[in-house]
Amino acid sequence: MDLVVGLLALICAGCCAGLLAGLFGVGGGIVVVPVLYFLLQAQGLDVASAMLIASATSLAIMISTSFSSMRSHFSRGNVDVLLLRRWGPFIFVSAAVVASQAVRIGGLVAALVFACVAFIAALNMLCSSSSDQQAAQTNKVKSMPAWPGQAVYPLSIGAIAVLMGVGGGTLTVPVLSFYGYTTHRAVGTAAVFGFLIALPGAFVHLLFSQTPADAPAYTWGLISVPALVVIMPLAALCAPLGVRLGTRFSSVQLKKVFAYFLLCCAVFMFARALY
Question: Is residue 242 a contact partner of residue 18, using CB atoms and an 8 Å limit?
């Protein structure tokens, strides 16, 4: 692939990742992973190696985007601190454990998981009967399962998200929306979860994962340094803009846009993984 085209793709990915991190609390990975997956395959990498490097690099980038996004959401009171205290440790530990097993699980499996989860999450949000407007009026949420059953949610979110290379929003927003959270509050809480997923995931992939034989130059562990250098600063700069942009839309509008975006990403990843 032409160097200029690849650089432009990374710049666009960085800007979009930051905007989406603030707008939807997704950490930007839902954009970065498909873009890097395509670029790496264009350089001759097989499906497995391309997905492993794309997801690991996305996690490293999300450290910056998620941190920037969660600061903005904290300042606006969009974070459920009580839920963060309950779920945070489980998300952190499950992300670290699954990241350490990513190479054994395989890149093709990760790519299909990415597509399936994004597709299911999109359909769930489009078909959801919960109303953000009613939740905002009553200021109440539906009762969640009691512990230890409730631990299934944070453990699953951390494990699946780190395998996909995405932040907390892809899984957390649909779950919290189902329980009656307004989208703004679900997004803000998801942004913090994204940071708790990205930090251990990137650390494990950088220091303990073996670099694939067909990896491009300047790949450390499973992380592509050139992609990291280009995307991370752009994403961090654009994340606060996404947060401000999100305040101009209603919760219902944000939910629909987020769902259609996930649906497009799912179709793209299915096509790239199977053909």
Answer: yes
Let me know how long the chain is.
275
Count up the domains in the chain and report the number. Answer: 1
- pTM of this prediction exceeds 0.85: no
Helix 107-127 / helix 251-274 crossing angle, nearest 10 deg: 150
pLDDT tens, 129-181? 444 444 444 445 577 888 888 899 999 999 999 999 987 777 888 888 888 88
Q: What is the 3-state secondary structure (H, E, C) of 132-180?
A: HHHHHHHCCCCCCCCCCHHHHHHHHHHHHHHHHCCCCHHHHHHHHHHCC
Nearest CA to 254 among 91, 78, 10, 86?
Answer: 78
In angstroms, rounded to a whole number, what is the distance separating the alpha carbons of residues 235 and 233? 5
Range of the domain at 80: 3-274
